[in-house]
Design brief:
With 268 residues, the chain is an alpha/beta fold. The chain has eight helices and seven strands; from the N terminus they run βαβαβαβαβαβαααβ. A seven-stranded parallel β-sheet has the order 3-2-1-4-5-6-7, with helices on both faces.
Length: 268
């Protein structure tokens, strides 16, 4: 452990530990990131719409000796997002790190999807980032800070699933990241994106299993599709987030960092 995030306050949206049935050790990206930030000294405000999932995260952080405030909020509700950010500032007197992790896959192309499903994907995956930034940035202007947006390798590559609403909304996250990175660079706010590749999280069991048949087939296929022979873990994503949140990344701004074992470099 280090004190890389000592005295910082981090808010993590989508910090819950999903209750979806998944193998032991298979944890959500937001959970792993919240736990990692706390382990490195941050006071963590964990936000999720799922109260039970959130309780699991708070418990893990507190049991390890960390500091966590849990806030139930839905990122599609602007007033709830604003209230969560106010709660962070009220609780700890400052805000330094904003981690936007909420995302859902919406399977199907234009023929299968309704316009409402298309809009829902954008609302959850990218407008949620806009909402968090809208209310968080005013608190970052004095001291600077780090914003990390969890995008996806699917924002720049075909990853084997027919989910253009997901890919297009995550591509919008990348461009929102770049725009804000440049807009606020001279105010000491860094904005970066993480592009996870094939990561072994509960989401894939819940939302993608049907695409592969049973869960074990899915797992084997996803492991085999990775250049490393295995999917990444939520801890791989969390460690990238820790780096981007820390002062070691002080001159890194506006990047879209793949965490994918090299999958982005593969043709075919
Ligand atoms: N798992 C992968 O292979 C993979 C790959 C690329 C990108 N990602 C991205 O990583 C992020 C996290 O994915 P994960 O696999 O850990 O998912 P997950 O479903 O395990 O965790 C997501 C968390 O977000 C919460 N959430 C969902 N909708 C919400 C809302 N409207 N308001 C508040 N909270 C909400 C859920 O309750 C859950 O706790 C997503 O943005 C996803 O697109 C995942």
């Amino acid at each position: 452990m280090t004190n890389r995030l000592d005295a910082r306050t981090a808010i993590v949206f989508g910090a819950g530990m999903s209750a979806v049935e998944a193998p032991p050790g298979c944890v959500s990206n937001g959970f792993a990131t919240a736990v990692t930030f706390a382990a490195h000294g941050a006071r963590v405000v964990a936000v999720d719409r799922d109260e039970t999932a959130l309780a699991g995260t708070r418990e893990a952080i507190v049991e390890a000796g960390g500091d966590c405030t849990a806030v139930v909020a839905d990122v599609t509700d602007e007033s709830q997002v604003a209230a969560a950010i106010e709660r962070a500032v009220d609780a700890y007197g400052r805000l330094d790190i904003v981690h936007n992790n909420v995302g859902v896959t919406v399977l199907g192309g234009p023929v299968e999807l309704s316009a409402q499903d298309w809009t829902r994907a954008f609302d959850i995956n990218v407008t949620s980032v806009f909402r968090a930034c809208k209310y968080a940035i005013p608190h970052l202007l004095d001291r600077g800070g780090a914003i990390i947006n969890v995008s996806s390798l699917a924002s720049i590559r075909w990853t084997g699933y027919p989910y253009p609403a997901y890919s297009a909304s995550k591509a919008a996250v990348n461009q929102l990241t770049q725009s804000l990175a440049l807009q606020y660079a001279d105010r000491g706010i860094r904005v970066n994106a993480i592009l996870p590749g094939l990561i072994h999280t509960p989401l894939v069991y819940q939302q993608l299993a049907g695409e592969h048949g049973d869960a074990e087939t899915m797992r084997a296929e996803r492991d085999a599709s990775s250049p490393t022979g295995r999917m990444g873990s939520a801890w791989d994503v969390a460690n990238a987030a820790l780096f981007l949140a820390s002062d070691e990344a002080a001159y890194i701004n506006g990047v879209a960092l793949p965490v994918d074992g090299g999958l982005h470099a593969k043709a075919g």
